[in-house]
Design goal:
This protein is mainly beta. Helices cover 5% and strands 33% of the residues. The longest helix is centred in the N-terminal third of the chain and has 12 residues, at 5-16. The protein is globular and about 75 Å long.
Length: 379
């Protein structure tokens, strides 16, 4: 029995995905002709997949353009977010997470190890009533996002960004839209509930979080253990009743000095350094335990500040004022909290096959085929 190239690829996929749900189908996507897969276009793979299937999206030097619209729960693994690294970057131009009808949506979707230039989450659909326009249980982890538009048409719940990199593009990376008006949102939950941004890095001018005018997050936007780096303009804009804890602003302005529009937010146990305005909490907000204009003493980072780089180490040195001064005696910064790291992860948390060899070219019918596989763990 001869083993074809496509069979070898299939066996690698099976090996890599042994920890995934065995009831779901795994689909492969690659726009690199030297690394063949079942689909070359991301949208075609999304359309073929059933709810809760997994897509393995190969990295390459070519962006997946225009990307994909997803209206069913899927798990997407990219190869990573570092350009020019050991494993190629999975670069997706656009991802839209939406709702197909009253019973099927992208709720439950998880995306790992992908660079996404434009992200949209919107639960509206043709013919829907307001109360049908909901989305929930969406996770982005170890991803890089340039900008996103998140629409809470009725209610958006359990949305998590974990260990993600948000980089400069000329505006806020996370833009939340919605209304607290009667008839425009869930009368009990409001437009948003349980939105978590944890252990992420925002880097460059304007990188940060903003909301639409009049939107009140009602304490349901929680930003913890994040870094805001090298931002000369503002990192927060038009936000009401957000919660910010254990974050570090290093040479990164919190607010727009002329039009801050950040009110009734809570700032607990954060740290600022080398900002033009280091004051915490800012005017019209509350909080305690904040550390103002003190060097957090990262292990490897330019003293005068810089944008994010993979060569940096954001662990806190001995004597750092951020050690043990976070909420409940934890540390301030990304090396503590729910998903602690000293540097963001370059790759998705999935093993990678680095070599596969088949010692013989054929075996008799009923014989045993020996396969040698080498792989690396990417925790």
């Amino acid at each position: 029995m001869k083993i074809s190239v496509s069979s070898k690829l299939l066996m690698m996929v099976v090996f890599v995905t042994t920890t995934m749900n065995m009831m779901a189908t795994v689909w492969t996507v690659s726009n690199d002709p030297n690394r063949p897969a079942q689909y070359t276009a991301l949208q075609a793979a999304v359309d073929a997949a059933s709810p809760n299937d997994t897509l393995l999206v190969t990295g390459s030097t070519t962006q997946y353009y225009p990307g994909a619209t997803i209206v069913k729960p899927l798990v997407i693994f990219g190869e990573g977010i570092e350009a020019g690294g050991t494993f190629p970057q999975t670069d997706i131009y656009g991802l839209t997470l939406g709702r197909f009808n009253s019973s099927l949506s992208a709720s439950g979707t998880r995306v790992y190890g992908c660079k996404v230039y434009s992200l949209s989450i919107n639960s509206s659909f043709s013919g829907s009533s307001p109360s049908q326009q909901t989305m929930s249980n969406i996770i982005f982890e170890r991803c890089k996002v340039n900008y996103s538009y998140i629409y809470a048409n009725w209610n958006m719940s359990n949305l998590t960004f974990r260990n993600c990199l948000f980089s400069e593009y000329g505006g806020s990376n996370l833009y939340f839209m919605g209304s607290n008006s009667v008839g425009s949102c869930d009368p009990i939950l409001g437009p948003y509930s349980n939105v978590i941004v944890t252990n992420c890095v925002f880097t460059g001018n304007y990188s940060g979080i903003s909301g639409s005018g009049g939107l009140d997050m009602n304490g349901n936007l929680v930003v913890r253990n994040c870094l805001f780096l090298n931002n000369s303009y503002y990192s927060l804009y038009q936000l009401q009743e957000g919660v910010f804890e254990n974050n570090i602003w290093y040479k990164a302005e919190l607010l727009n000095s002329s039009n801050p529009y950040v009110t009734n937010c809570t700032f607990n146990n954060n740290l600022t350094y080398l900002c033009n305005v280091n004051t915490l909490p800012p005017a019209n907000s509350i909080g305690s335990g904040n550390i103002v204009n003190q060097n957090p003493l990262f292990t490897t980072y330019p003293a005068l500040g810089a944008e994010f780089a993979w060569a940096h180490n954001y662990a806190l040195q001995a004597g750092s004022p951020a050690l043990g001064t976070g909420t409940n005696g934890t540390d301030i910064g990304i090396n503590s909290g729910n998903a602690p790291v000293t540097q963001l992860h370059k790759y998705a948390k999935i093993p990678a096959v680095t070599a596969l060899t088949i010692p013989v070219s054929s075996v008799p019918v009923g014989g045993t085929l020996q396969i040698n596989i080498q792989a690396v763990s990417r925790d």
